[in-house]
Amino acid sequence: MEIKEMVERARKAQVIYDERFDQERVDQVIKVAARTIFDHAEELARLTIDETQMGVYEDKVAKNRNKSKGVWYNLKGKKSMGILSIDERTNLIEIAKPIGVVAGITPMTNPVVTPMSKIIFALKTKNAIIIAPHPKAKQCSSAAVKLIIEAIAPFEVPEGLVQVIEEPTIEKTCELMEACDVVVATGGMPMVKSAYSSGKPSFGVGAGNVQVILDRFIDFDVAAEKVITGRSFDNGIICSGEQSFIYHKDDKQEVMDAFRRHGAYIVSEEDRDKVVNALFEDGHIYRDIVGQSVQTIASKAGIFVPGNTRVLVVEAHGIGRDDLICKEKMCPVMAAFSYDNFDEAIKIAKTNLFMEGNGHTAGIHSNNQANIIKAGTELSVSRLIVNAPCATTAGGSIQNGLPVTNTLGCGSWGNNSISENFTYKHLLNITRIAPLSARIHVPSDAEIWEL
């Protein structure tokens, strides 16, 4: 089917959906859509592994389950149509309206949960959506979308409201972006840039390069387990996964021992360049190591690591552009840095972020609220994750208040239009009815300018 025809079908379906579905019925639809991915988590994880040849099956199962239930939990009971609010003081009335047709661009790294969340956000806001999967993940993405379409059909959802490009190409994706009403692009930076150049309102993501500060006087075993859990999850392909940890120089022995106890292999100085050269070529990450296991990376580097190794740790020789290991590594490898004082820890994190990953996410493990606030104040990130694995909580958690999503805005730091987790509210147009309120005193010029 041609893109033009798909968009025409979507527009017709969206009008019907908008006219006939109230809030209760919409919420029934999105609950079933989310539950479908939850119930088919294992099947879809296996399809994803077989097609993309990256990541960890068990982690993909967990991701499919946790993201689907998290998205539904966040959206349950939220008003997304009609009158949203009436300000008691000004009488300002806000009325929510759909945007129209959404182009959902989805990546190879999260080819099931990303289409799922975008579909649910669109359905929640009475929009139509067409998913454009990554060509190397078209089968598992299409399977997920089709399962959702089949599951919501009994609710008399109009045909064409949810669609997927089954044979995606760059040309088709670009055509879709130009023909739709809004673009939500999750994927590599060239695709995000293309979305912003499409001439349509767009929401994109920035590159990740999550820096994690280990404060002093914490339980390093607890911190090490959380950091390694985040870095090793799905073999490190999550954009919000930990990339580096920054520790006080006086705690080095204790920190490294804790990391070893929880599955880290500290790469020797002798083998350091072997690992770096196995990861990067001409400053860019090798595609063949993305989402691969520690054993695969070690084999490519020509080093031996124990079978129970969860991550490789490489001690950096510089910060920012002075050392390639400071860049984003989409595999279970981490950089390690030492600092003299907390200000230096922040400087290290800042320098690495300015080089790559600005605006995305950072982490801190600390019992010192002043230092936590200082890091949040000084680091140019949209999310600072505290005492938790970044990979599995930056994209939203029932416990941390961040909306569950797979599209993480990075603000102007990352050349994005939002600096928060993308969710259903970003797919709404709002009409504001603004009468003059007699209850509000209009101050004189003297009153306005007085101190």
TrEMBL record:
It comes from Butyricimonas virosa. This is Aldehyde dehydrogenase family protein. PANTHER family: ALDEHYDE DEHYDROGENASE-RELATED. Pfam families: Aldedh. The keyword Oxidoreductase applies. It comes from the Bacteria. InterPro entries: Ald_DH/histidinol_DH, Ald_DH_C, Ald_DH_N, Aldehyde_DH_dom. GO terms for molecular function: oxidoreductase activity, acting on the aldehyde or oxo group of donors, NAD or NADP as acceptor. Keywords: Oxidoreductase. Residues 2-394 form the Aldehyde dehydrogenase domain. SUPFAM superfamilies: ALDH-like. The lineage of its organism: Bacteria, Pseudomonadati, Bacteroidota, Bacteroidia, Bacteroidales.
